[in-house]
Design brief:
It is a single chain. The chain is built from 13 helices and twelve strands. By secondary structure, it is of the alpha/beta class. The chain has a six-stranded parallel β-sheet with strand order 3-2-1-4-5-6, sandwiched between helices. The chain has a six-stranded parallel β-sheet with strand order 9-8-7-10-11-12, with helices on both faces. α8 runs parallel beside α13. The relative contact order is 0.12. The mean pLDDT is about 95.
């Protein structure tokens, strides 16, 4: 049996799909399982024990043309509710073609009935989240597990899968033990947060008596340099290899981050996590993409960048970290 899975969007979303991938492997142990993903997120699964093959989706290639290379597949599953993934799955012409979309996307629902054999509807829809405040929003892990269950997976796995090796751990062995790790990102400098407030947060976290380690990627190189220049962190680490960065999180007593894929890296290595979600769409994001199966504190960015609002936000973050240590 040949199975194709697709997930061509973000790193965090693919991490949240690893339980579904593991569920497919456990349910179809003798199948050849291929994942089509983006070049950007392929590093999430380059050590996956649950895949036989990982095929990055080339830039500039039409989804239908890319999907056609998987003709002969018996089962194709789109793990993302995106048109690109749906088109790749449809082009396989597999006997079973399974995917999902959001309940209010009527045009997509009609089109998917023509492309796929099985279509699930998700209630985690931005158009519904605030209109029905009493309705629970399913976590993305559970949504994707429902998709593979509809495709025939009978043995469901709920743990995130992101292997860390002894070599990864050795690369960060010189870091102070059990630090508070703050993941820097562009969103720390906008929409209810500022670079100066972020640096002030480091100073206020000092009161908790733990070493402070800052990590950052390409989107926050200026902020990382500012934090290092301010001398407010014990270590500032940028541009780490993905799995070494994961090992930093594994070493943490607590991870502090804004709403990025770092949230889900932390969950994968069982690190307690404080997440600062954007003020807009807070109800949806804080449920669908919350830290998964780890102790956590979920906070909302303030609606303004006044001194009072930023000071109150920092106090909430410090209190959240203190509650998890």
């Amino acid at each position: 049996m040949r199975i194709l899975l697709t997930r061509t969007d973000r790193v965090g979303d693919l991490i949240l799909s690893t339980p579904a991938i593991a569920s497919v492997r456990r349910s179809f142990p003798d199948a050849h399982v291929t994942l089509a993903c983006s070049r950007y997120n392929a590093l999430v699964v380059d050590r996956s024990p649950d895949l036989d093959e990982v095929v990055p989706y080339p830039d500039g290639v039409k989804p239908a043309l890319f999907g056609a290379r998987f003709r002969g597949t018996d089962l194709a599953i789109a793990l993302a509710p995106r048109d690109v993934d749906h088109r790749i799955v449809a082009a396989t012409r597999a006997r079973r073609r399974v995917g999902y979309t959001y309940a209010t996307r009527i045009a997509a629902r009609v089109m998917l009935k023509l492309r796929l054999t099985d279509v699930l509807l998700s209630s985690a829809d931005p158009a519904l989240a605030d209109r029905f405040p009493d309705r629970a929003i399913p976590h993305e892990v559970d949504q994707v597990l429902a998709v593979v269950a509809a495709a025939g997976a009978t043995s469901l796995v709920h743990d995130l899968v992101l292997p860390v090796t002894d070599a990864d751990r050795a690369a960060v062995a010189e870091l102070p033990p059990h630090p508070i790790v703050i993941q820097l990102g562009r969103r720390w400098t906008e929409h209810g947060s500022t670079a100066d407030s972020c640096i002030a947060l480091f100073r206020e976290l000092r009161a908790l008596g733990r070493p402070l380690v800052a990590t950052y990627g390409d989107d926050a190189s200026e902020l990382g340099a500012a934090v290092e220049a301010a001398g407010v962190a014990d270590r500032v680490l940028g541009a780490l290899p993905f799995h070494v960065w994961t090992a930093v999180f594994e070493r943490a007593a607590c991870v502090v981050t804004i709403d990025t894929g770092a949230t889900h890296v932390a969950s994968a290595v069982k690190a307690p996590t404080v997440v600062l979600f954007e003020h807009k769409w807070f109800r949806l994001a804080s449920q669908e993409w919350s830290p998964y199966r780890v102790p956590n504190a979920i906070l909302r960015k303030p609606p303004s960048e006044s001194d009072e609002a930023l000071r109150a936000s920092r106090a909430e973050i410090v209190a959240g970290v203190a509650s998890l240590l």
